[in-house]
Write a structure and sequence with these properties.
The chain has 229 residues and is of the alpha/beta class. It has one domain: 3-Layer(bba) Sandwich (Glucose Oxidase, domain 1). It is 33% helix and 26% strand. The protein has seven helices and eleven strands. The strands form two sheets. Strands 1, 2, 3, 4, 5, 6, 7, 10 and 11 form a nine-stranded mixed sheet that branches. A two-stranded antiparallel ribbon has the order 8-9. Helix 6 links the parallel strand 5 and strand 6.
Length: 229
């Protein structure tokens, strides 16, 4: 089962709060609520997409003592051989990367790879682990949600394990193809088999909220914005 482009487009209009209400209305109460410890890197980030999953694990390799020149070569080889990003080679527009970093405070993600993801059409990234270069990630408006801000590189710390398998992030099991919606309120995962019903209920919630808030805007003489149009 795969979420259609039409349904994906609908989800991209919805807020996390709408989707949460839609889950309640579809008898999926308290399902898919990712831990609030996973937060957006910058305020105002919003994204929705189909889950593409990957997992990294702690390495058992100890980095040897070497000169800075030797280390530069070792660093490049680590990324080529042990800590690759293969999902970026197959990512499609509308994909939302869900990456399990085994809870480590390691900077797998940063400003450079974030731009590569955007170029590939990735709508958002969830890291159950660390993101670094956060000032640049925010400046570039790359939509990233992470458990922690990290400082370290992956070299001697992290290895790629797999992609395309079910992972657990923030206390939620995520399968490839599940719908993911994220904003300032957090992240919610919708099981793909329930995605159409959840979207219908959530859209009704959103439209009702817009009508009600628009009336309040008009009563208060506030200029209309995109959240009430």
């Amino acid at each position: 089962m795969s979420v259609s482009d039409e349904l994906l487009s609908l989800y991209q209009r919805l807020r996390v709060a709408d989707v949460s209400d839609g889950m309640d209305g579809a008898n999926l109460r308290d399902v898919g609520l990712v831990s609030r410890a996973i937060r957006p890197i910058w305020p105002g980030a919003r994204a929705a997409g189909r889950a593409v999953t990957a997992r990294y694990v702690p390495t058992g390799v100890r980095v040897p003592h070497m000169t800075p020149e030797e280390y530069a070569e070792y660093d490049g080889r680590w990324y080529r051989e042990k800590c690759t990003y293969p999902y970026l080679q197959v990512a499609r527009p509308g994909d939302f990367l869900i990456i399990d970093l085994s809870g480590l405070e390691v900077g797998l993600w940063g400003s450079n790879v974030a731009l590569s993801a955007v170029r590939a059409g990735v709508t958002g990234v969830l890291l159950d682990g660390g993101c670094r270069d956060t000032t640049e990630v925010a400046l570039q408006r790359c939509p990233v949600w992470a458990r922690m801000v990290a400082r370290t590189t992956v070299v001697g710390r992290l290895e790629f394990e797999s992609m395309g398998a079910t992972v657990e992030v923030g206390g939620v099991r995520v399968r490839p193809g599940d719908m993911v919606v994220a904003d300032d309120d957090g992240v919610i995962v919708v099981p793909q088999e329930g995605a159409e019903l959840v979207a219908r209920v959530a859209l009704r919630v959103l439209e009702g909220d817009k009508r009600s808030r628009r009336r309040r805007y008009e009563e208060l003489g506030l200029p209309l914005d995109d959240t009430v149009r």
